[in-house]
Amino acid sequence: MRMKRGIVAGAALLLCGGCAAGNMQQKQQYTGMQEITEVDENLIVVGFSQVGSESDWRNAHTQSVKEALTEENGFYLIFEDAQQKQENQIKALRSFILQEVDYIVLAPIVETGWEAVLQEAKDAGIPVIMDDRMADVDEELYTCWLGTNAEKEGEDAGLWLEAYLEKEGRAEEKIRIVTIQGTTGATAQIGRTNGFDKVLRRHDNWEMLEMLDGDFTQAKGQEVMETLLEKYADIDVVVCENDNMAFGAVDAIKEAGRTCGPDGDIIILSFDAVKAAFDAMIAGDINAVFECNPLHGPKLQEIINSLAAGKHVDKIQYMEEAYFDTTMDLESIRETRAY
Questions:
Q1: What are phi and psi for residue 279, nearest 5 degrees?
Q2: What is the pTM of this model?
Q3: 58 vs 216: CA distance, rounded Å
Q4: pLDDT in 10s for each residue of the chain, 339 residues
C-alpha cells in the first residue's frame, strides 16, 4: 500500500504560509472533491472529469468507463461529475493534480478555457487523455483524444437526407430545416453542425430556418421545438443533435397536433443511437439516427495500459460507429445493443 503524495502535498499546502484566509480559500476550493488516502501501489490511479448526466448517452458513457477502470483491471478511478459546469471540471482537475494521480481523463464541456489548468497538469507530469469532446488548446497539452467523428456524423445525416428526399420524389422541393443544437461550443455540437452544413450548401432548395441551443437535454429540446413550431408554419426537417433533444422535439410536435417520422409531416434526424431512439424509430416517430458510440471504457483501458507500458499511442482515435433508419430490422438490432 502507498500513501498518495497528493494528500501529503495538500496537507502541507493547508498548513504552510501562516495565512488563515488564504488557507481557508484553498480548502474550500476542493470541498466536494473525492480524495484518496492510500492505494495499492500496483494500481494505476486515474482521475476522470465527466461532463454530467444530461443524457442517456452520457450515462452509458460513464458506466462504460467505470466498468473498465476497476481495481480488478488494475485501476483506481476517481470520478467527478461536473454537473454541466466548466468551473467544476477545472476544480476537479486541480484536485487530481494535487493528489498526483497517474492519468487524467477529461470530457470537456466546451472547447475553450482549458489552457491554464492543462498546463498545470503538464507541469506536474500527468498525461491528459481527452475523451468524447475536444479542447481548443495546443496539442502538446494533452496526450491523445478518443471520441467520435462528429463532423462525419453530421455529414452522414445530410447525405442520408439527400438520398431519402430523392427516393421520396422530393429532391427538387423547397425543404425547410431547423436544427436543435447541442450545448454551444461543445465538440459534438460544432462537428455535427458543420458536417450537416457541408451537404446543406450543395442544395439551393434546402433552407435552414433557424438553429437553437437545446443543451443536449430532453426538456430544453422540447422547449426549443415549441418555440420553432410557433415561429414557423412550415417545417419539413428537424435535425436534433442528440437523441434526448429529439425525444423532446417529438413530444412538442405531437402536443402541437403535428405529425413526424416516416408517415408524418416532419422528418426527424437524431444522433447517438441509444436504445430509446430505436424505440422511437420502431414507433414511427424518428426517421434515422446516427451513432455516437459511448462505450469508451475498454478503449481508454487499452490506451492507459499502453502509455503505462511506455508504448506509443495515436494522437487521434475514433470509435467505430454506424447509422440506423426505419428501413432496417430495428427490433433485431435493438436486441444486440449494449446502450
A1: -60, -40
A2: 0.79
A3: 10
A4: 333 444 433 332 322 333 323 332 332 333 455 555 678 889 999 999 999 998 889 999 999 999 999 999 999 999 999 999 999 999 999 999 999 999 999 999 999 999 999 999 999 999 999 999 999 999 999 999 999 999 999 999 999 999 999 999 999 999 999 999 999 999 999 999 999 999 999 999 999 999 999 999 999 999 999 999 999 999 999 999 999 999 999 999 999 999 999 999 999 999 999 999 999 999 999 999 999 999 999 999 999 999 999 999 999 999 999 999 999 999 999 999 988
